[in-house]
Amino acid sequence: MKLLPQQLNLSRLSAFAVICEEGSLSRASLRLGIAQPALSNMIKKLEEDLGTRILMRHARGSTPTQAGEVLLKGAYEMLAIANATISAVGTANQEPEGDVAIGLPAATSTVLAIPLIKHLRNTFPKVSLRVVEAFSGYLWGWLQEGTLDFAISFDRTSLPDIVCHPICDEEIFLVGNQELMRDLPQKITPEMLGSFPLILPSTIHGIRMKAQAFAALGSGLDIRMEIDASTHLVKLIASGEGYGLLAKCAIYDELANHTVKAIPLSPPMIRQVSVCAQRIKMKDPVLLRVLDEIQNVSRDLIASGKWPVVVPPSPERGRGR
């Protein structure tokens, strides 16, 4: 009969892990406070359940077999999840506290930063919040290093060590000074894009790859300046120094003040926006609750129209991959 996952006994797995750490049943018996015959019987039952030997006993003690090495890795993971779950249940009704670092791309920060900060401060007053604003390429690197707990990222998919929860899809527009854009057509094709002097972030950021892929269908790009500072980039575009490729959330105030105009591209340039985190950190109950609130605030902004999007999140999209 095939062993079902729910039939694995956590007490036996824990005992097995301690034996591997101590290197012998006798030392594990002392550490656990379990009689050696009873401990030996637990391992025997575990081997019977699995249908294979997991410990090699010899004169110097006990070491895991090849199958035991595989089991040991899984045992640590299962025990960590079990402990985190118990901790989360125990603190479910307690007020979260601790340090949380969130990275927001400059474009998204325009619409998300203030509502999110206010909401998290009101919802979790004991949480010490650190919000970092930078271009998405930098944030992704800091997330991988563990400097950030969360990062809003563009066009990223989950990795073995990072999980990405999609929030929405955004459309990218050609953006320029209102007066300079007045007589332009309603859509910009790849053949037309090469005639606009562009101000773009440097090559490590996702928008450059999307722009190059779009321009490859036409006559290429005319990049006049590289600016890795969102505020200056938008100001230069608004003043007529060049054109940019931006989502509407990045120029929300400028659009409202009619200082810039946004013209869609044809075919459309779309990017997926996700909130990403290291998988190992998602065992922290405080971070899980903060993640829920980031998603809730994002949904509210999208529903109200304050965050212009193409495709809003659905329950299935929001689960990550």
UniProtKB/TrEMBL annotation:
<dbReference type="InterPro" id="IPR036390">
    <property type="entry name" value="WH_DNA-bd_sf"/>
</dbReference>
<keyword id="KW-0238">DNA-binding</keyword>
<dbReference type="InterPro" id="IPR000847">
    <property type="entry name" value="LysR_HTH_N"/>
</dbReference>
<protein>
    <recommendedName>
        <fullName>HTH lysR-type domain-containing protein</fullName>
    </recommendedName>
</protein>
<dbReference type="InterPro" id="IPR005119">
    <property type="entry name" value="LysR_subst-bd"/>
</dbReference>
<dbReference type="Pfam" id="PF00126">
    <property type="entry name" value="HTH_1"/>
</dbReference>
<keyword id="KW-0804">Transcription</keyword>
<feature type="domain" description="HTH lysR-type">
    <location>
        <begin position="8"/>
        <end position="65"/>
    </location>
</feature>
<dbReference type="InterPro" id="IPR036388">
    <property type="entry name" value="WH-like_DNA-bd_sf"/>
</dbReference>
<comment type="similarity">
    <text>Belongs to the LysR transcriptional regulatory family.</text>
</comment>
<keyword id="KW-0805">Transcription regulation</keyword>
<dbReference type="Pfam" id="PF03466">
    <property type="entry name" value="LysR_substrate"/>
</dbReference>
<keyword id="KW-0010">Activator</keyword>
